[in-house]
Q: What sequence folds into this?
């Protein structure tokens, strides 16, 4: 037997639906629900930090999806700061899908765009499940690869809002995205003054690469919903003064050793018993926002569950469309 692995390059992944935000949100939501219900395994990711020597890091993010889906897989995610200005994205990821019975790998695909799409979707789900239903304005901070998709995710996840203001230290990037989304059903405007934008916003979503927290508590409406996708976007007191605090994976975000939530946990300023993982809200097993007046904060470090759930759908779509290149793992296995 010659095991076949379907290799999907980025162009194939796009043709198979990687830029379909409706599908991405649906699959991201399903992965949270199945994880809460126990039909999906999402172990904490393992990090390989090479920041000091290479300004880069790698992460292995495994997942098993049970039920009718039945796939085991992992994403090998990486970010390289030296890529800036070299025509390479910051984040470059690949995903492998395997058969949980034979353990044979059967798909290998570019996952960089899937990551950006699912990260944006994850932010959208945070906003959807935690915001006040009469929210009218979103401020999105960070107009990089994830930010571009952030506009799509928010438009689909909180379609009732009336305006999306976007901010980036690099104003041209914000203007570029506003221009790209000039026909968006929810108007998108690039702004130059973040504090002014946040002061009248109901939902604030941050997805930046800042090494220094910048989002201030005094800018926020007392009942804002704040979603952090970067590791250090929020100043400490935004998190410590939240009336309700949510994370995607408590052990992962506090054990990662990096980012503001890990720091605050180490300082004994955020606690597991007063935090809730968003998956339980999505599955109807925990309460979302408890009061109209609450400041609600959600911080995410990213879940392999979403990557593998979406990759499974991309693989199925690619098979149906005849996309990709088949390679063999071996002609015949030795020493069996
Ligand atoms: N939580 C998750 O699941 C997850 C997954 C993937 C990436 N991320 C994180 O999302 C963030 C964005 O990733 P990306 O691929 O879009 O990066 P990117 O480099 O493409 O974009 C980052 C943007 O942030 C802007 N920025 C940096 N500091 C800022 C500040 N203080 N104020 C406003 N804008 C600022 C930059 O100008 C840039 O446009 C990164 O921190 C990345 O690690 C999170």
A:
């Amino acid at each position: 037997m010659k095991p076949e692995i379907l290799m999907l390059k980025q162009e194939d992944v796009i043709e198979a639906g990687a830029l379909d935000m409706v599908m991405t949100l649906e699959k991201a939501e399903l992965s949270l629900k199945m994880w809460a219900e126990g039909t999906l395994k999402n172990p904490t990711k393992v990090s390989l930090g090479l920041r000091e020597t290479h300004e880069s890091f790698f992460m292995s993010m495994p997942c098993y999806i049970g039920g009718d889906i039945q796939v085991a897989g992992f994403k090998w995610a990486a970010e390289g700061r030296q890529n800036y200005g070299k025509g390479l994205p910051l984040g470059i990821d690949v995903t492998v899908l395997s058969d949980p019975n034979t353990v044979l790998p059967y798909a290998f695909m570019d996952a960089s765009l899937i990551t950006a799409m699912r990260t944006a979707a994850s932010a959208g789900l945070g906003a959807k499940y935690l915001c006040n239903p009469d929210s009218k304005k979103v401020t999105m901070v960070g107009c990089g690869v994830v930010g571009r998709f952030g506009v799509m995710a928010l438009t689909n996840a909180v379609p009732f809002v009336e305006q999306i203001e976007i901010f980036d230290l690099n104003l041209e990037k914000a203007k570029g995205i506003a221009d790209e989304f000039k026909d968006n059903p929810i108007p998108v405007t690039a702004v130059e003054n973040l504090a002014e934008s946040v002061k009248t916003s109901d939902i604030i979503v941050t997805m930046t690469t800042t090494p220094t927290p910048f989002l201030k508590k005094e800018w926020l409406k007392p009942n804002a919903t704040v979603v952090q996708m970067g590791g250090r976007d929020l100043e400490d007191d935004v998190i410590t003064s939240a009336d309700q605090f949510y994370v995607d994976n408590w052990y992962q975000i506090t054990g990662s050793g990096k980012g503001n939530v890990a720091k605050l946990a180490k300082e004994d300023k955020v606690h597991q018993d007063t935090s809730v993982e968003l998956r339980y809200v999505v599955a109807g097993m925990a309460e979302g926002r408890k009061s109209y007046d609450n400041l609600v904060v959600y911080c995410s470090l990213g879940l392999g569950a979403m990557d593998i759930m979406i990759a499974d759908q991309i693989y199925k779509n690619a098979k149906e469309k005849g996309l990709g290149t088949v390679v063999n793992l071996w002609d015949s296995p030795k020493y069996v």
